[in-house]
Amino acid sequence: MASAAEQLASNVNFSAFSKATELKKRIWFTLGALIVYRLGTFVPLPGIDPTILQDLFNQTGGGILGMFDMFAGGALSRMTIFALNIMPYISASIIMQLMTAVSPQLEQMKKEGETGRKKINQYTRYLTVAICVLQAYGIAVGLESMQSGGNVAVHDPGMFFRATVVITLTGGTLFLMWLGEQITARGVGNGISLIIFAGIVAELPSALAATLDLGRTGAISTPIIIGMLLMAIAVIFFIVFVERAQRRILIQYPKRQRGNKMMGGDTSHLPLKVNTAGVIPPIFASSILLLPITVIQFSAGSGPEWMSTVAAYMGRGQPLYLVTYIGMIVFFAFFYTAVVFNPAETADNLKKYGGFVPGIRPGKNTADYLDWVLTRLTVVGAGYLALICLLPEILISKWSVPFYFGGTSLLIVVTVTMDTVTQVQSHLLAHQYEGLIKKSKLRGRKA
Q1: Counting Cβ atoms within 10 Å, is residue 297 exposed (0-12), middle (13-18) or buried (19+)?
Q2: pTM for this structure?
């Protein structure tokens, strides 16, 4: 029999939205913040010829830079103040999580609760600034060396231009970091994920127009375009199916006698998602690859010879890039799952409250069993993520389809949409609870 909370959740109706004042404020704040972000993606860096830059990006942006431009909502190809997007902050978060796993001092700091979390967040911000400075300086040097048809991309190269680019791009990323935190605290959904989501969705119309234009010119046949659209729909259904899939482990609680009453004896389930890490592994892998490849691809042809060699091997569909990207996705799938779910801690909590898995002894045996199940689920989840993220490479190498119709972009859009809708439903559910509590208090006073 469903619990009262589950019954109430099933009755949540979005018609109650008009009465949820707090939820409406959060949604309007989220939309306003995302509009500010989109406006910033059209503010160009000073001292750059956008026409030459766009021509050069069209020649070299089809590879991994095209993927990063997708995450940035076109800000990288336009070279705007948000060209680095939120990726440096994600890279810094990854590095800090890795250091927390290997550093006893940071691990102890993490266990200190809110105080330790604030310290780690402060270190993450400092590291974000360092990564931004490194990437922005590499972009500035690469921009100075770019030219097309005898015309240079930078009007007045030099240290002043480099300093301007570093300060502007670093400030843009820090502003997005702050904006994402504000969305998470005062809006609906995860702010960082929504910023990436907004960039992808905003560029979908132009990507669709470009694909249809390829069909008009004969570069892609009409059956292939229809097949790609049907495949995109099938991928969306597949993503929703896997993201909702769970392995439910039966948990039993023994009966206990308290006075003259027999308590307990209930059963419940411990749900383990097939893809516990969600959309984090592809984003983490992309942000880590962005750190060196941005500098290498912008400097290819003007820097050392080895840079050109690495840039060639890390191009679109190249084996080195594919192996590195997929390897990072698999690694972060296991790593992030280990971060968010601790089998030993879960087993201890079950033992503390008297719960046990039928046929498994409480304590270490339960922890080993949970770890065994979770490891096999993560293998399936990592394979699913790798398959989804390989899809854009196949489409691009075969038919030059924009990244926006690939599996990675669809994965981000679908996952963030599902998480945001879940949070909206949670707010509506909380609003209904508040209404029931107020009604019960009024009835109690009248009585």
Answers
A1: buried
A2: 0.78
Out of 239-243, 285-289, 337-341, give the one with best mean pLDDT. 239-243
Residue 419: CA count within 13 A, CB half-sphere: 19
Burial class (CB in 10 A: 0-12, 13-18, 19+), 201: middle
Determine the Cα–Cα distance for residues 371 and 373; give it in Å rounded to an integer: 6
Domain boundary assignment for the chain? 17-446
Residues 105-121 have a mean pLDDT of 83
Six token digits for residue 25: 């404020």
Class of domain 17-446: mainly alpha
**C-alpha 41, offset from chain centre:** 19
DSSP of 314-362: TSTT-HHHHHHHHHHHHHHHHHHHHHH--HHHHHHHHHHTT-B-TTS-T
More confident residue, 295 or 394: 394
Q: Would you say 284 and 392 are in contact if contact means Cβ atoms under 8 Å apart?
A: no
In sequence order, what E strands does 242-309 have? 246-252, 255-258, 261-264, 267-273
The 10s digit of each residue's pLDDT in 290-345 is 666 656 655 555 556 666 677 667 666 677 878 888 898 999 899 888 888 888 88
CB 72 within 8 A of CB 200: no
